[in-house]
Amino acid sequence: MATELSSSLAIPRQSLTCAVAEKLREQIIRGEIPEGAQLRQDAIANQFQVSRIPVREALRQLDAEGLITIVPNRGAVVPALSPQDVEELFTIRALLEPEVLKLSIPELTEEDFENAESILRNYVNELRREQHVSAWGRLNWDFHSILYCRANRPHMMSIIRNVNAKGERYTRLQLYLTHGMKRANREHHEILELCRKREVSGACELLREHILYAGQSLKEVLQQRRTTAAAPPRSRNRNNSASV
Amino acid sequence: MATELSSSLAIPRQSLTCAVAEKLREQIIRGEIPEGAQLRQDAIANQFQVSRIPVREALRQLDAEGLITIVPNRGAVVPALSPQDVEELFTIRALLEPEVLKLSIPELTEEDFENAESILRNYVNELRREQHVSAWGRLNWDFHSILYCRANRPHMMSIIRNVNAKGERYTRLQLYLTHGMKRANREHHEILELCRKREVSGACELLREHILYAGQSLKEVLQQRRTTAAAPPRSRNRNNSASV
DNA sequence: GCGCCGTATATTGTATCCATAGAATGTGCC
DNA sequence: GGCACATTCTATGGATACAATATACGGCGC
């Protein structure tokens, strides 16, 4: 779906900066680089076998995207989002995405529906093997973005993609910790069905609720986790998944 | 009002990259760097008396913000926005800004109102001397952002600021070409009055119409200009401000 | 124990050099 | 004369070395 390399022509072989930014973005989204982690220019340059120039440019780019925070003279870190931050991100999604869906539904093609269904099947497959948690987030985004693509609103899509990227670490958390996968899957099927029937307002409203529910339950998870984390370190060193 | 050097404390003296990005951003927004203009690294580096590295990083940053477009191996250009693009930007504003205003109104203080009024007074002053067209855009944004600031929604504010920045060149055009200043000024006063009365829904609805109207009239201006521009270059070389 | 100072590390910025992609230019051929 | 192709030129993309600076850390004296 996102492999536009398939076409043999038009291969403007992206710059190293873009490649590094993409790799880092993915690592951050997938949680391989945890919250609060410092991003050392030298380490990254070594890891990708490039000089520090592309790395520095990539970091500036990710900073502008809001995925990392560059504090002057102290380097870049992956910011930890507060429950309020997360709620805000989901509120933004709940505002923008139904609007785009509304514009997109009338233009969706049968091929789009099939692609979306194919993703949902993958979703179910991945649901059984929990080790691929990071794949969930990607499939989640792929599903949503397919439904939006026909709206032909590049600026909105760019914003939505960015907001999703910022929150995707947490989306995965919500899917994982609250067993939200099944509910998400059911809602995805319902939304897709409504799109097929071209029931615009119904689909948009359900999408909105779908996003708001995820945001709300995630916020609760985060607040709970925060209070337990803030509590005195009882002997219970639970099987913590902090580094995931 | 942006001279935060005044405060003796908290002077994290921004990096050169940030300074260059800020200067370029301002030049682009003010239209001093026109649409389609190439941004040469060497030229910029010379202009600001810095090496190319901070310039390159600043360009990446502006690219991520969507203010410029970097084409691999061909450098950065200021993209020309189509009427559809402009309409989309204003649609986004019309969606987000009333939402933020809704959250902000209950928290607005008397001081905020006075600041907003002060800006509106400046607005009227600048209205008389048309040479300061570039100041209009800034005052416009300042007024709007003051009304939103109490919503305490950093992510939304960041998006709104960015969308405004992308469209501000055109906002100025609208204010200038359609004599929209007077109408904008009147609507601003009305919005402010409704905020004072804490009439949330009224203020938000008026704000939404205010934005949509500006977008619509601007779109018409652009379409008209496009068709006339495509027409043979009549002798009319009006007191053009194209290079401003 | 507390504060001060020096060192180590990482970022920030400069200068220089090289490779290469695009564009412009020039040349030859039909 | 116009078009295809080769050459040249310019600006970007990237590497490397080096200087400057700010932060963090550790030890030292009081």
Explain what you see:
The structure is a homodimer of 244-residue chains. Chain A has nine helices and three strands. Residues 1-10 and 232-244 of chain A have low confidence and may be disordered. Helix content of chain A is 68%, strand content 3%. The first copy, chain A, starts with 15 loop residues before the first helix and ends in a 14-residue tail after the last helix. In chain A, helix 1 (16-29) packs across helix 3 (52-65), helix 4 (83-104) runs antiparallel to helix 9 (200-230) and helix 6 (133-148) packs antiparallel against helix 7 (154-177). Chain A has a three-stranded antiparallel beta sheet with strand order 1-3-2. The first copy, chain A, has helices spanning 16-29, 41-48, 52-65, 83-104, 110-128, 133-148, 154-177, 180-196, 200-230, and strands at residues 38-39, 69-71, 75-77. Chain A binds chain B through residues 12-15, 17-18, 53, 56-58, 60-66, 71-73, 85, 88-89, 91-92, 95-96, 99, 153-156, 158-159, 163, 166, and chain B through 12-15, 17-18, 53, 56-58, 60-66, 72, 85, 88-89, 91-92, 95-96, 99, 153-156, 158-159, 163, 166. The first copy, chain A, binds a DNA duplex (30 and 30 nucleotides) through helix 3.
Low-confidence stretches of chain A: 1-10, 232-244
Strand-residue proportion of chain A = under 5%
Q: Note the total helix count of chain A.
A: 9
What class do helices, strands and sheet pairing of chain A give? mainly alpha
Helix content class of chain A: 55-70%
| Assembly context of the chains | homodimer
Using a beta-carbon cutoff below 8 angstroms, give the protein chain pair with the largest interface and the number of residues from each chain. A-B, 36 and 34 residues
Mean pLDDT of chain A: 86
Order of helices and strands of chain A: HEHHEEHHHHHH
Number of strands of chain A: 3
In whole angstroms, the N-to-C terminal distance of chain A is 27 Å
Main beta-sheet annotation of chain A: 3 strands, antiparallel
Write out the strand line-up for the largest beta sheet of chain A, numbering strands in chain order.
1-3-2
Per the principal axes of the C-alpha atoms, what is the gross shape of chain A?
globular
Using only C-alpha atoms, the radius of gyration of chain A works out to 19 Å
